[in-house]
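Write out this protein's structure.
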Amino acid sequence: MNAKEKLKILISQYGGTQKIFASIIGTTQPTIANWMAQNQIPAGGVAKICRALPDVSFEWLTGQEESPRRGYQEETARETAPLTGQPYYSRMPASAGQLEMGDEDITTERIAIPGANVDAYFPVVGNSMDPTIQSGDIVGIRKLDSFARIRPNDIYLIFTRDNERMLKRIKGVNAESPNLTLYSDNPAYEPFNVLKEQIAAVYKAVMLIRCLE
């Protein structure tokens, strides 16, 4: 198996795209594309992969063994294996503003990051959370089971019953108040209130994937 084929396997297992895989291992998409074009993973690239993905075998990357990691199933067997990782809603952005959800918001993509405790991943559009979270970033989210778990310094993805979703901070949480006050990090956006009864779900943003281009 040559280097290009190995990279294809790693990309499919860790991110699904060159851009996401590059972000996971701490490099850029053009760098990954260059490795594939040259059919070679340089020593520095091997080091990045092993550092970011400790379950990937150094010996496999360098051609000294056949299995990329323990328990690996060959390509023919993987076709019937269950999907790994968490859903990546590439067509359902987490808007740093507001964006309607449509029936087309279905995904078959997944992102597998070792040790990540998330329910799903969303790409970010809009600039209301600049500079903390920027358009083009990917957030990993985990669902909250109660408003009581909201912390004012954290960032949340809020889904409303009107099929809107907003990436915001939530401040001034009061059990007696019928509202939640949502804030942006970008000072150009004013805070606003949303009725608690209009909120369908709240997810805490627990992971940020930032592409380097």
